[in-house]
Structures are given as structure tokens and as C-alpha cells.
Amino acid sequence: SGSSTRLASRQRHPRLLRGIRGTCLSGRSPSSPRIAAMAPEERRIDPEDGSSYTYDELAAFYNRKYKKKVIEAYWETCKVAKAKKGKAKAEPEAKSKAKAKAKSEPKAKAKAKAEPKAKAKAKAKAKAKEPKPAGAFKVCVCGGAGGIGQPLSLLMGMDPNIKELCIFDLNVAMVPAAGVATDLSHLERKCEVKGYSMEVGKNPIDHLEECLTGCHLVLVPAGVPRKPGMTRDDLF
Q: Is-above-0.90 flag for pTM?
């Protein structure tokens, strides 16, 4: 019975026996170090069915029929299976993804650069809309100690366009011009306020030179006081 099973196995796997004879004739040992150093993921084609197997799979299949040395010798006769095209397809996909990322990165950088520019433009527009002072003006209010001149001088002192404000009035005014100038100097503005006064009957050219020199605007809310018996119509 033992001889019959051996003959049957030899008839079923003639190529396996041919591989064993070839290795013995070539002088290569079945248990060569090439098998030990073999990569575990290497796959070879079994000529019996044309499918690819690893060494462990092939040894597990023929383990019950043949010895280990015979299986190793048969493994050496099998052709190495070629790698599948899946990896080759994966590489172009990876390259296409890398190209897509490379294309998207310049766009992202362009957007990142455009955002600061847009912000800078918005800030420039906001600054352009803010009212800027027209300049440093000098204004003189002649009659600034009267009932009309005082509030007018206050409005001039609050104006951010005015750098220097001169208050002028006669010494007969109920409030001296220097007092009005002192009150307006307490405003939280950079406007410099000065007061000037003159006696009645003196020549204005001799006393108003410093007050009127360099003025951009001169306001005259002054008038001749009414005499006893006069009406407002008489002033015109």
C-alpha cells in the first residue's frame, strides 16, 4: 500500500520530481541559504495550477505529501510572480494628487496675499473718509468781549482748524478782552488764545499790528453803543 501511494503521488506531480532532480544534478543543496534569506512577501507561480503562492502557502499545501527539502527544491524551480498593476496605478494617482496640491498651494498663497492687500485698502479708505484739519489758521475777533463776540470767540476756539485766536476789544467793554482770552485758554484744544485791548480815541494802527498780522480771518461783531434816547433803528 505504501509503494502504491508513492507511485500515485509521483504520477500526480511529475514536475515537482523533475525540479528535485534538477537541483540534485546542478549540485545545489535543497536547503540552500537562499531559501532562508527569502523575502516573506515573495510570491511564485506553481506550474500545477498557474497561481501564485508564498513559500508558506506552498509549504502548507505540500507539507503532508513531501518533505521540507523537496518542497524547498520545488520552490526554487517556480518562477517569480510579477507585481500587480495596482501599485503602478496608485503611483499615478499619488502624482496627480501631488500635482493638485501643488496647484492649490499657489492659489491659497495668492488668497493669503490678497487678504492683507484688501485690508490695507479698506484701512486707506477709512483714513481717507476721516475729516482732516484744513490747516493752522489764525483768526481775530474784533469786539470779542461783547455779548455776541464772546460766544463767537468760543466757537472759534473749539474749531480744530484754528491754531491761534486773537480777542480784541476796547477798554470800555464790560468784560476785558484779556479775561475772555484767559477763559478760552482752558479749552481742551491746541488753540492759542491771546487778548488785546485799546483805549478809546487812540490810533488803531499803532495797537492792532500784532493782533492782525498773519490773520486768515477777521470777524467784527462790534458796534457803536446806543446813546441815551436812541433806538436800534438809529444804529443803522
A: no
